[in-house]
């Protein structure tokens, strides 16, 4: 792998009860960012940690009040 070709290390858990309750990591590509997503099912709040294309995250930041960085 050449220098500068990778992105950050991101937490990667599909469903967790707390935002800080994940111990799995994934290496991101240089065009990806880490993503933390809140999921509410009835009265249960869950969290999903993953990686996402940086352009998608930038778009969501501009178009949604729910995205916080």
General description of the model:
- The protein is mainly β and 69 residues long.
- The protein has one helix at 54-63, and strands at 6-11, 13-16, 25-29, 32-41, 44-53.
- It has one domain (7-63).
- The protein is built from one helix and five strands.
- The strands form two sheets. The protein has a three-stranded antiparallel β-sheet. Strands 1-3 form a two-stranded antiparallel sheet.
- The protein is flat.
Report the principal-axis shape: flat
- Order of SSEs: EEEEEH
Give the neighbour order of strands across the main sheet.
2-5-4
Largest sheet, in brief, is: 3 strands, antiparallel
Hey, roughly how much beta strand do the residues contain? over 45%
* Computed structural class: mainly beta
Kindly state the percentage of residues in helix: 10-25%
Distance between the termini: 29 Å
Q: How many β-strand runs?
A: 5
The Cα radius of gyration reads: 13 Å
User: How many helices in DSSP terms?
Assistant: 1
Indicate the low-confidence ranges by residue numbers. Answer: none
Mean pLDDT level: 85
Domain count: the total is 1
Task: Write a brief caption for the model.
With 69 residues, the protein is mainly beta.
Summarize the helices and strands and which ones pair or pack.
Elements: E1 6-11, E2 13-16, E3 25-29, E4 32-41, E5 44-53, H1 54-63
Antiparallel strand pairs: 1-3, 2-5, 4-5
Keywords:
69 residues, mainly beta, 3-stranded antiparallel beta sheet, two-stranded antiparallel sheet, 1 helix, 5 strands, 14% helix, flat
